[in-house]
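Regression test attached.
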Amino acid sequence: MARRLDIGRLVLPAAAVVTGVVLLVVFYYPVATVFVESVVVDGRLTVGPVSEILTSDFYLVDIIGFTAYQAFLSTVASVALGLPGAWVLARFEFPGRRTLRSVTILPFVLPSIMVAIGFVAMFGRRGTLNGVLGAVGLGPVELLFTLEAVVVAHAFYNAPLVTRVVTAAWESVDARTVETARSLGASPTRAFRDVVVPQLLPAVAVGATLTFVFTFASFPIVLALGGFQLATVEVWIFKLVSDLEYAEAAALATVETGISLGLTYAYLRYESQTSGQGEGANPLARQSLVPETASVKTLASRLSVLVYGLVVVVVFVGPIASMLLASVSNAEGFTLTHYRFLLERQATGAAFQVKPLPAIRNSLLFGVATVAVALPMGVVVSVLSARAGWKGRLVDTLAMGPLAVSGIVVGLGLLRGLVFGVDVFGREVVVTGTVAIVAAHAVAAYPFVTRNVSPLLARLNPRLVESARSLGASRARALWDVELPLVWAGVVAGAAFAFAISVGEFDSTVILASGSGSYTMPVAVERYLGRRLGPATAMGSILLVVTAASFVVIDRFGGRWEL
Amino acid sequence: MRRREFIRTAGAGGAAALVAGCLGGGTDASGGSTAESTGTAADGTTTGTAVGSTIPSELVVATYSAFVDAPSSSPGPWLKEQYESEFDATLTWETPENELNYFIERQLGGAGIDADVYVGLDTNMLIRIDERLSEPLFAPVADGALSRRDDVKSSLEFDPQGRAVPYDTGYISLVWNENETTAPETFDGLLEPEHAGELLVQNPTSSATGKAFLLHTIAAKGEDGYLDYWQRLRENDVRVLGSWEDSYNAYSNGEAPMVVSYSTDQVFANQSGEPMSEHQIRFLNDQGYANPEGMARFAASEKEGLVDEFMDFVLTPEVQAEIAVRNVQFPATTTAELPEEFAQYAHEPPEAVTFTYDELKGSLSEWTDAWARAFASK
């Protein structure tokens, strides 16, 4: 008995130490090797590069200012597009709801080049949208290569994230709190405003903050759908790194990271102030999408669902369907040539070429391993930073670092810090290959687990844990038996995100892959791009199908344990 | 490379060795049998060669990934097969994601370089190397080491220090769709209102074709006039996208009727049966910007003899012809035996323009940076 308790007491600290070590090895150390260049020039400590950026009109206005402006617009668009989705998914019952909920995250895994291709096919001059508009006699719209196109594409990526996070929060709203308000005489609207909205706000803030941080660091979408005149911070960092201007690149990345981390810290302050009272075990009952009675109110709500459905078709289904269509057609019409290419490459491709099946296998393998590593990491960080003061927020902010640091900088750091080898006590240590890739994916993914779990965990009544502890349970036992079942919706959402991040990840995969055997589906998509889009869209379609199926499995499997 | 990697990582520690072991397990042992296999190659000799009385030599060739892995017809697999059938050596391709920057970074970071030769250098890359590195990354080819060195057209020589040996060249031109527009004859023509929003260009800071087009405008408008010219291009709604793929795909989708690409575009169009009307070539001011590609031996490589043999092999008439067709570029030698169709569809400009290494050294990054700042100003 005593022995078991001791082990139980060691579980959380041990997990925390492992999390810290993984973070240090595949994130903080590599990134530090790059940031050092912004403060050390020719072996001397200096503020030169950073202050040069902070005193330059070009950097402040044309690059940083513009980046913040487009990120703000993108965030507004993503929240506006994502919230109704959460409403529909959380409040209505209809066939396929769970599947739809599972695949809301799909845009998140699409390589940006596929999104660009889908957007061109959907919104381009000869795109589907203009085809439909032309058929009903409306003039063609020219959306591509403008700021608007970039904002819509960002919403395509991030609105599902908002939907996902808010749906998880909405589903864990305790129905009894609403019933209490109603029994005290509150109207449904009033009960919604005073009881439900406060419980959703942290989730909305999570979605908005993450969207801002992501779109602030936007890079391939801006170049592919906007063009270089819309250059963002990240585009500029990429330019500097390509030119090997490391000091300037690192300085700009330092400023960028400062902004992102500052924002994260501000958000966390907010999150810690809004701890509600729900306990999440009694979700609200959903309404049927087909109303039983035809009142004005139910008709109005169903009409808005319909309108929202149309928007979803244009913005989400359109680009994806256009991409799928591109994979089975060429100039002459319907064709399976592109899939035949994949079969041929699989059958006769040389060992040094990228083949479809190993790419699928690696993606799934890395995805599952990432979920296995990122879930404990994310939950541990959530628990450790749950109810502490500013110190806890600081730890939490630092733990969110992987979200806030430029992908280009992380990639460069991994390359120089791990791939080129590190001198450890006189021995050259090179970190590459499968384990390193999974660790890097887990580091990129666990913040999503944390951000899905933390707000729900913070809303739990602390007395639940206290009474479990007073009955002799270890902290880990209380977490496992009491808290996790109550926040399971968030854990499953986090797992889906972790899987998505792993499947969609490109940069650290190609950097850490040793030899030629560790490529994934997005790598294959990129390799198959050429003068014709076909092979790449075929590979992209396979990526889409494989990951959609995976999300359904994650949600269903996760759901089985729902209490 | 995998074998070396294995030995190195195996020595590095438990986890890394486990990793390399995983990788070794699932890979394919095929030596690359493409559809057009000549049948002379001994498939299967490329791996598992460690067990034997003599260990055949291994030549590690680094290049950009499209050279070995493009979906259409990259020269890599064919080249490997031919090389291994002629020499008692294994050719191992290495395609780091950052391409040449990967090796520059390794050198800067004091990490060793395990590749012997790089395929895919141009003048701009040489300048980047020479500006950033104090120790040489590449070594010059010794006098008389290559029997076919003199077959290379002298107009394509781009390295005054004799490191890079040209193996093919492209001419950067406009590709345009005659169903939708008529491309202008001159750079000034691009500023006409009728061409507003009609041109797609690549980002000169990250793409070779984009950089070549920028340099061509500097050649045409002068060091003092090119920024002003670009300002007017921008006002005429030119679009600068990320990579050649980004812009060519947008062009193929009908987003714009003109794109900066290669003057060999019709070779590809002919191969794949695309309508020629969508692959018209225009040499602005009757000029094409020449961008020769070269190969060079890494200074760290100890296989000078093997590398020299490889370079000589790449310069043989048959290999030159095959690279030209598969890489859709012009051969670098005067001796290549090109198929008739190639000559019909590959267009050479009346006048080839290019900046020499000496003209670019010291100016290239200044010109590009000035352009980037001006173009990215909101």
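Expected vs. actual: identical. Chain B touches chain A through 85 residues (CB under 8 Å).
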